[in-house]
Amino acid sequence: MPRDPLIGLVGKPSAGKSTTLNSLTDATSKVGNFPFTTIDPQRAMGYLQIDCACARFDLSSRCKPNYGSCINGRRSVPIELLDVAGLVPGAHMGKGLGNKFLDDLRQADALIHVVDVSGTTDAEGKVTRGYDPSVDIAWLRSEIVAWIKGNLWQKWGSIRRRHIASKATAVETLTNQLAGYSANQRLVARTLDKMVLKEPLEDWTEETVNRVVEVFTDEKFPTVIALNKIDHADADKNIAKIAKMQDPNTIVLCSAISEIFLRKLAKQGYVKYTEGSEFVDTRDDLIEGGDPKGGGLKELDDKNKTRIENMKDMVLYRFGSTGVVQVLSKAAEILGLVPVFPVRNISTFGAADNKAAFRDCVLVKKNTTVAEMAKKVMGDAPVGFIEGVSGQRVSEDAVVSKGENDILSFKVGR
């Protein structure tokens, strides 16, 4: 199955980007037969939790994913992650690993910006106290805008002349120029529609080009702001400030180190913990709850007991979870991802003798058509027709969405 889209993780040194990446890719007991895999030094598979279609058809007991897993209708779907290197101020001028950072960045469909909300690391990741992390959020966007705008404005004279000579539309000209950032006509048209520009492209000033690049950046790189290290004493004031400056729908509060710790203890048999939950049970907790065997858990030492209690008070009960699972969910939300379930036969996928329902799940962007879905799943194989859950043929122009055209059978033929 295809592994789209690609989510990039960015963050200055010591912000917790690597810890966040590790917590997103370590799915512990939920990985099924798809363990954490490093695709290359910078790419790995994370796990997005979704509501599986099996729950709609009472097939949870027979849902057997080829990749990831499904437990009681809650499915962990692999999603590709990219560790974007070298984020420091001045990256667009080559500072730090700037050129590599920006080259990596262009591949991403969305970003997760891991921000050290404790304020204990400065702009370059060096230890300090009282740093304002809202600055990091502002300069990430400014670096991307400066990079794209610099590349575009440097050759604007020749772009303008070619545009006039070819009598192309603004969408066509910009798509050609922004193709290196994985831009297509749909993305560019959406950018220009949001701006409602009256002047033709040949009359654009440098200021207009800069505004176009700013809107394009927001459309091309929708960003989740993962405010990390929320358990630090200085985090609250910084969270409050950032919440007033940013769209709250793009912010997730998290403690990646807490998630790593809890998953490690769960894997070793010391606690009972479900990723994304506010609940963690120790042996003592379960015995107190009426289980004399304590769930078969091992006994924690006093140091880890204290650490668990502090984590409950400072993170789990206060914020509702460590926030790590919610980071990927928020990225999927801002991209408008739709899980689609290809099945071999639309009339038998739920039959009693089918012991392995919904083997595959593909994540696609909102407004994906059935024809685009067929291309993604079947490649260049000729598709004769496509069936939906009703058994009726589905138009290739139909759009997939949750609960509608999200279970499809592709029939090969001419």
TrEMBL record:
Keywords: GTP-binding, Nucleotide-binding
Coiled coil: none
Pfam entry (one): YGR210-like_G4
A molecular function GO annotation: GTP binding
PROSITE patterns: G_OBG (PS51710)
Domain named OBG-type G: residues: 5-274
UniProt superkingdom: Eukaryota
GO CC annotation terms, alphabetical: cytoplasm
InterPro entries, alphabetized: Beta-grasp_dom_sf (IPR012675), G_OBG (IPR031167), GTP-bd (IPR006073), P-loop_NTPase (IPR027417), YGR210-like_G4 (IPR013646)
Keyword Nuclease attached: no
Record-given protein name: OBG-type G domain-containing protein
